């Protein structure tokens, strides 16, 4: 029981034995048999019965039909006792006095407004209610698998894919009423982690599949725990993995979100899944029409498990769940496979991060017992890019105390370079190599550091406060 309203765990409301039944029947009989003057009957209706009905609306998820069913006996008993014909159209009953209405609040509209008020009041607050709302909104985004914050959309063709819950009911009211809520900059959202990547559900929606097909595809996607083609692509970014094609979960790749429980879809759903992939992102041979490119999310390296070293022909496994810096490597299996066979690895050997070479690349594998087969790997310099980014971060933190000296030293009207160009320039700006003694070397290094930091700071200011 919450706010005087009996609710189920899924926020479905029981139809009988609740406060609304007692109020709507009891209120009607009390007004009808009380022999009150008309003005007192109207006062009892507007100040006693209706507030009782409005009080628990913040916790309910009733449809408009259910709200009308609850209000029907209240209006049938209250309006005649107040001197108003009981058959008055609801447009006038719920209308404002400006348009000759009775100004009786609509139960369904009051419920929707109460939901919006809760979202605005508690959406970014730390207590329990705010945490539950944020968790439900984030779960809604994962379940839908489309770009954008749901509550800021005016039209959504995927609302029927969401699980029935309080947030979905509030969202449906907002869609029908034209209300939107803009997210804050700190609200998480679904992201693309590789170049030339896209959202699977967005591609499916552009193909104009029916609602039944969309439900089947959503079940398959939730079971595989994927949102983009890169989540089901081999390491080279050119082909759909065998497990995703056959409808099997791949535990060798990290999961980026907390996923809802989804049972194994039937075989008919997987047939539709493969057909939808062929019509949207790949060919009959599972080759992507537009291969995904380099990674854009360097944080993914902290969770990626498998790497390949072409020079050593070793497969490396990162195991942060065991202990930080723990790795294992697998040497290549003896023998030379045929041209089309996959490279196999066996015999796990533990090691640490200090013994891991720098020229390793994220890879995807197929596991068969204790034997692992390499299905692909990307040769993009992701690991080097992450080290450069962490160097700039440490470098910037170390010299933050010197930034106040830069305002009077540099006056730049326009910066046309990007962060990537700054990183490339940082490799060539080494004036200390021209110094001969240790004192000049120290001063030259500091001067170069201040210059690079100043250019990074100016670029950040232009990005945060662009000119009108």
Description of the structure:
This protein has a seven-stranded antiparallel β-sheet with strand order 4-7-6-1-2-3-5, with no helix packed on it. A hairpin with a 2-residue loop joins strand 6 (361-368) and strand 7 (371-377). It has helices spanning 19-33, 38-54, 64-81, 90-93, 107-122, 128-144, 166-177, 200-206, 211-224, 242-246, 267-280, 382-398, 419-428, 438-464, and strands at residues 306-309, 314-318, 326-331, 343-345, 349-352, 361-368, 371-377. The chain is built from 14 helices and seven strands. 41% of the residues lie in helices and 8% in strands. With 468 residues, the protein is an alpha+beta fold. The chain folds into five domains: 19-114, no CATH class; 123-177, no CATH class; 200-280, no CATH class; 298-379, no CATH class; 399-464.
């Amino acid at each position: 029981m919450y706010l005087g309203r009996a609710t189920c765990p899924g926020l479905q409301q029981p139809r009988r034995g609740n406060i609304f039944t007692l109020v709507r029947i009891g209120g009607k009989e009390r007004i009808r048999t009380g022999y009150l003057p008309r003005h007192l009957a109207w006062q009892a209706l507007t100040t006693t019965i209706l507030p009782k009905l409005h009080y628990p609306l913040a916790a309910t998820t009733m449809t408009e039909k259910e709200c009308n069913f609850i209000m029907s006996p209240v209006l049938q008993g209250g309006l005649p006792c107040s001197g108003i014909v009981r058959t008055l159209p609801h447009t006038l009953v719920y209308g404002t006095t400006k348009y000759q209405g009775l100004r009786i609040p609509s139960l369904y509209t009051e419920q929707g407004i109460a939901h919006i008020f809760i979202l605005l009041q508690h959406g970014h607050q730390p207590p329990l209610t705010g945490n539950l709302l944020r968790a439900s909104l984030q779960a809604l985004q994962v379940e839908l698998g489309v770009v954008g914050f749901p509550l800021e959309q005016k039209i959504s063709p995927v609302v029927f894919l969401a699980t029935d819950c309080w947030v979905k009911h509030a969202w449906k009211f907002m869609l029908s009423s034209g209300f939107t809520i803009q997210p804050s900059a700190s609200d998480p959202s679904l992201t693309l982690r590789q170049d030339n990547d896209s959202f699977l559900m967005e591609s499916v929606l552009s193909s104009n599949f029916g609602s039944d097909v969309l439900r089947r595809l959503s079940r398959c996607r939730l079971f595989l725990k994927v949102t983009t083609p890169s989540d089901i692509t081999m390491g080279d970014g050119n082909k759909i993995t065998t497990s995703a094609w056959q409808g099997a979960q791949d535990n060798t790749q990290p999961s980026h979100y907390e996923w809802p429980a989804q049972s194994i879809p039937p075989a008919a759903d997987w047939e539709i899944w493969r057909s939808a992939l062929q019509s949207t992102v790949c060919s009959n041979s599972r080759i992507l029409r537009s291969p995904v490119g380099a990674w854009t999310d360097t944080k993914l390296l902290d969770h990626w498990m498998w790497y390949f070293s072409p020079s050593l022909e070793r497969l490396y496994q990162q195991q942060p769940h065991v202990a930080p810096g723990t790795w294992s490597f697998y040497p290549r299996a003896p023998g030379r496979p045929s041209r089309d066979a996959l490279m196999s690895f066996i015999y796990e050997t533990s090691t640490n991060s200090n013994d891991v070479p720098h020229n390793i690349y994220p890879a995807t594998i197929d596991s068969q017992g204790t034997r692992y087969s390499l299905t692909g790997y990307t040769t993009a310099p992701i690991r080097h890019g992450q080290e450069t980014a962490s160097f700039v971060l440490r470098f910037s933190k170390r010299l933050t105390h010197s930034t106040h000296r830069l305002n009077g030293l540099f006056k730049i009207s326009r910066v046309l370079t990007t962060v990537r160009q700054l990183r490339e320039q940082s490799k060539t700006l080494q004036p200390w190599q021209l110094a001969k003694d240790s004192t000049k070397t120290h001063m030259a290094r500091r001067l170069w550091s201040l210059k690079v930091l100043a250019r990074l700071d100016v670029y950040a200011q232009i990005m945060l406060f662009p000119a009108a």
